[in-house]
């Protein structure tokens, strides 16, 4: 396939996208500050880029998978950013969770620089990212989607087209993260209550998945609690950030968000308790500690800062 893609940020989601592109036969450059991430990408057939400038100059499509809006601006528009060296018409796909106003501003800057921009935050977790099966909540011009089609097809199962205006994808991701964060908090509360009553957590997890109280997050993150495995597929600190975005967006919209604010407080407490870089299901460990209950815990802290659910 005569196309080159560049991925900025090789955390769990970015690495999954980059490896999916390689698997699809697309020449793929990857950039990350961590040497171990660059080495792992090279071992899977990718080409580590020395800097964002080089990546931007060589890529037809650039995907940003960094942590927040500030890192996105630095990677794209900073002194060694990707945009200055990119060819006019290069498609930039912004896969970062951020406030809608930030997404719109970044996309507008890209357009003024002669680029095509897609506001496209993603969901599905690290496993689906590795399989090229994520969902994308995307907005941007048709020309951008057409040009980036081989890349989007390689990394996603579904691309939800939400119009042309930048920020529409970010607004949808805020709603997703609102629900995801609240559901993880509810999962943690339920599992700790079950443990407090001496219930078998594996049985609770199995039964509830066939009942009305189930959610995707209960099924997925509840399994982490049952196994005592808090390997950070998405870390507590990610939800401190994302629910902070939810809270700010709710304030700006004048929308009440009491459950989101309560969940945010729980994630903040868990982070302050030293659980910030463990899997987001570790909020259950924090609640268990408050109750004087011991949950299964393998004790491993295999952390990665760049994790997105």
Element layout with pairings:
Elements lengths: L3 E5 L3 H12 L3 E5 L3 H9 L3 E2 L3 H7 L2 E4 L4 H9 L13 E4 L5 H13 L3 E4 L2 E2 L1 H7 L2 E5 L3 H14 E6 L6 H29 L4 H8 L7 H12 L8 H18 L4 H18 L7 H9 L18
Parallel strand pairs: 1-2, 1-4, 2-3, 4-5, 5-6, 8-9
Antiparallel strand pairs: 7-8
Helix pairs in contact: 1-6, 8-10, 8-11, 8-12, 8-13, 9-10, 11-12, 12-13
Give your account of this protein's structure:
By secondary structure, this protein is α/β, with parallel strands linked by helices. It folds into two domains: about 5-165, 3-Layer(aba) Sandwich (Rossmann fold); about 170-290, N-(1-d-carboxylethyl)-l-norvaline Dehydrogenase, domain 2. The chain is built from 13 helices and nine strands. Strands 3-2-1-4-5-6 form a six-stranded parallel β-sheet, with helices on both faces. The longest helix is centred in the middle third of the chain and has 29 residues, at about 170-195. The protein starts with a strand and ends in an 18-residue tail after the last helix. Residues about 300-309 have low confidence and may be disordered. Catalyzes oxidation of L-threonate to 2-oxo-tetronate. Can use either NAD(+) or NADP(+) as cosubstrate, with a preference for NAD(+). It holds the Pfam family NAD_binding_2. Belongs to the HIBADH-related family. L-threonate dehydrogenase subfamily. InterPro entries: 3-OH-isobutyrate_DH-rel_CS, 6-PGluconate_DH-like_C_sf, 6PGD_dom2, 6PGDH_NADP-bd, HIBADH-like_NADP-bd, HIBADH-related, LtnD, NAD(P)-bd_dom_sf.
């Amino acid at each position: 396939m005569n196309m080159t893609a560049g991925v900025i940020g090789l955390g769990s989601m970015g690495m999954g996208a980059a490896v999916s592109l390689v698997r699809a036969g697309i020449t793929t450059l990857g950039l990350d500050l961590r040497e171990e991430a660059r080495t792992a990408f090279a071992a899977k057939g990718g080409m580590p880029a020395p800097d964002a400038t080089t990546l931007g100059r060589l890529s037809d499509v650039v995907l940003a998978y960094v942590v927040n809006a500030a890192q996105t601006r630095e990677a794209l528009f900073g002194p060694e950013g990707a945009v200055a060296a990119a060819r006019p018409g290069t498609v930039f796909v912004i896969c970062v969770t951020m406030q809608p106003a930030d997404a719109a501003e970044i996309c507008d800057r890209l357009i003024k620089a002669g680029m095509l921009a897609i506001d496209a935050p993603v969901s599905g977790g690290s496993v689906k990212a590795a399989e090229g099966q994520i969902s994308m909540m995307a907005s941007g011009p048709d020309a951008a989607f057409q040009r980036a089609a081989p890349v989007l097809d390689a990394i996603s199962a579904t691309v939800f087209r939400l119009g042309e205006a930048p920020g529409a994808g970010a607004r949808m991701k805020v709603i997703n993260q609102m629900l995801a964060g609240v559901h993880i908090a509810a999962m943690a509360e339920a599992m700790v209550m079950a443990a407090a009553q001496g219930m078998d957590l594996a049985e609770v997890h199995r039964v509830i998945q066939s009942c009305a109280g189930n959610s995707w997050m209960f099924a997925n993150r509840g399994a982490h609690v049952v196994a005592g495995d808090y390997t950070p597929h998405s870390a507590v600190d990610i939800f401190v950030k994302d629910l902070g975005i939810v809270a700010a967006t709710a304030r700006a919209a004048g929308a009440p968000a009491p459950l989101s604010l309560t969940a945010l407080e729980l994630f903040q407490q868990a982070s302050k308790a030293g659980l910030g870089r463990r899997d987001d299901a570790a909020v259950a460990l924090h609640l268990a500690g408050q109750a004087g209950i011991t949950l299964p815990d393998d004790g491993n802290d295999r952390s990665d800062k760049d994790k997105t659910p």
